[in-house]
Structure formats: C-alpha cells, structure tokens
Amino acid sequence: MKAVVITTYGDPEVLQIQEVEDPEMKEDEVLINVEATAVNRADTSQRKGQYPAPKGASPYLGLECSGTILAVGKHVSHWKVGDQVCALLSGGGYAEKVSVPAGQVLPIPPGISLKDAASFPEVACTVWSTSFMTSKLSAGEKFLVHGGSSGIGTFAIQIAKYRGATVFITAGSEEKIAFCKGLGADVCINYKTEDFAARVKEETAGKGVDVILDCIGGAYLQQNLDSLSVDGRLFIIGFQGGAVSEINLAPLSAKRATVQAGSLRTRSTESKAKIVSEVEKNVWPAIAEGKVKPVIYKYFPLSEAAEAHRLTESSKHIGKLVLVP
Ligand SMILES: NC(=O)c1ccc[n+]([C@@H]2O[C@H](COP(=O)([O-])OP(=O)(O)OC[C@H]3O[C@@H](n4cnc5c(N)ncnc54)[C@H](OP(=O)(O)O)[C@@H]3O)[C@@H](O)[C@H]2O)c1
C-alpha cells in the first residue's frame, strides 16, 4: 500500500509518500480501506521527533480515519466486511489501509459523508473525554475553550452549546472570532488584543467559568486559575505555550479548583473503547440532528501531506484539514 513516511525528523518536506507493507491485523482488530484521514497538531510534533508514537502503534502518522472495512479479526463480532466506519487510531491513518482495535471504530454519523466523517473521531473523543467525562461540564455552566478556531475548538463550541453550556473562546484574529461566533460561541476574546482573564472576570461578574479546556499550558496556567469559578475544573490538553510555569497555589485552595492534564493517544485500548462508546452514545446523536457539523477548511490529496502540515503550522486554517489517499 501507499503511506506517508517520515523519512527523517524535520520540516514538512520530510513527509514522502512511499510504497510500504500492508498493516498486520490482530484478532481483535479490523482492517480499514482508508477513504480519508485528518491532520492533528500532534502529527506535526511527531514529524519533528517531539512526540513519538506509543509502543506498538503504527510508525505512520494519522490519529483518525474513515473508510470501509476490508477484513475483521476472529474475535470481532460487532463489525463486518463492507461496513462504512470511522475510527480513532493510535497512528497509521496517513495510508491506504490501517488496522485498529474494533472498540475504536464508530459508525458514520447519519447525514455525514464517508470522507467528512474522518474529521470527527479525534476531536470528539478528546473533547468528550476531557470536558464532559472528566471535568463534568453540564447544562447551565460556563465553559472556556482556548483556540476556539482549532479543530478541537470548533467541535468543542458546537457540542458544548448543544449540551446547554455558555461558551467562551479565545482566538487570535477577528476573522476567527467571527467564525466562532457563527458556530454559537457566546463570548469571543481576541487574546492578541485583550487579557482573557480580565474579560472572563468582567463577563461573569467576577465569578469565573466552571470548566476550561486549555491547549496552551504553562503560559496560561496562572490566568486560567484566575478565570476559574469556585469548584472550577481546568483540563490541559496541550503545551503550545510551554510546559513549565510558576503559579500562586493560594487561589487554587480558596476555589477548590481541579487541575488535570492528559493525552488521549497514550490511553489503554480499553480506555479508548470506553470513550468511543460514550462518544457514540452522547455525541453521534448531536451530529445526526445537524447540531454539530464537520468544520473542514480544506481537503488535500494524501501526497500533499507536507502542504497540509505547512498550513497547520501557519495556523491560518479554521477547523480541520482532511487528507484523501
Ligand atoms: N491531549 C490530547 O489528547 C489532545 C488531543 C487532540 C488535540 N490536543 C491539543 O489540542 C490543541 C488543538 O489541536 P488541533 O489539532 O485542533 O490544532 P489546530 O487546529 O492546529 O489549532 C491550534 C490552535 O491553537 C491556537 N493558539 C495558539 N496560540 C494560542 C494562544 N496563545 N491562545 C489561544 N489560542 C492559541 C491557534 O489559534 P490562533 O491562530 O487563533 O492563535 C489554533 O487555533 C493542540 O494543542 C493539540 O496538541 C490534545
């Protein structure tokens, strides 16, 4: 099969499409003929050698895909050859075929094309497992998402609105702010021209927000803690602003705040299967109702993965970039 290979760690041009061996399928896995995959920021870190694939994962990039099942392992009963699906992967999506544990496979949400379904698994599983399963965001609560125009952000705005939360976002341009407003975000803050913590305080009469989904890390830690309400929950999923920070712990105690961090990719197969099943139960109906839509900025042929990485790293995009073999 053809796959995008990281020929050596470095800039986007190190990505080259090559002929490689087909993946081996285990007894609890299915083999998928890939219709589409999507780019995640983590792929750019892996390409640079800063985010190695977990043990046992495919050496190829790609944390999600959609496609048609070509074969099923002998311990798989839920899926059959010919089923159209999408899947959360530990790697290997940038290829014509990929094998994946059956518990990480989802049906195509009604009303979504096979190609566009590739844009959902990573964002849906990340946002649902962090903000909802762990941080327990619920109806009537206030939710702040950093990077509102990112793949993660555009999904988080929609699902949080669907679940009845008031959504605050940060973004770095007026074009991105306008897009997030169009998706339903209630309070949009341009972090390049405003202090987001001051604006959150102003908009919440000093009370703060209940849940924050943060992809900046160190650089935002103090401001995030300042923006939390009493019993507030901060979940850190990225370190675009570094991983080191010195903070004042006193407000944490006064607010009984919870700070958590985590990565979806490094979870066990069992844990991913649990998340995927919760996503199917809780998120897929919102997509089927048309309340959560795919936000796809551009489609690229798989052979132009390097170009898609350049665009991701420029941060000019809004939502997801989809690669089609
Ligand atoms: N832990 C996990 O399991 C997990 C899973 C998936 C994703 N993630 C993380 O989630 C983040 C989003 O992922 P993605 O693939 O959706 O990425 P993406 O589309 O490339 O978006 C990255 C976003 O970060 C925003 N950003 C950069 N600096 C910012 C700042 N100082 N304040 C606010 N926003 C800022 C950019 O917005 P502007 O252009 O407006 O600056 C851009 O929208 C990444 O950090 C990724 O590593 C983590």
From TrEMBL:
GO terms for molecular function: NADPH binding; oxidoreductase activity, acting on NAD(P)H. Residues 10-323 form the Enoyl reductase (ER) domain. Keywords: NADP, Oxidoreductase. Pfam families: ADH_N, ADH_zinc_N. InterPro entries: ADH-like_C (IPR013149), ADH-like_N (IPR013154), ER (IPR020843), GroES-like_sf (IPR011032), NAD(P)-bd_dom_sf (IPR036291), Quinone_OxRdtase_PIG3 (IPR014189). Gene3D superfamilies: Medium-chain alcohol dehydrogenases, catalytic domain, NAD(P)-binding Rossmann-like Domain. SMART domains: PKS_ER (SM00829). It comes from the Eukaryota. The keyword NADP applies. This is ADH_zinc_N domain-containing protein/ADH_N domain-containing protein. The lineage of its organism: Eukaryota, Viridiplantae, Streptophyta, Embryophyta, Tracheophyta.
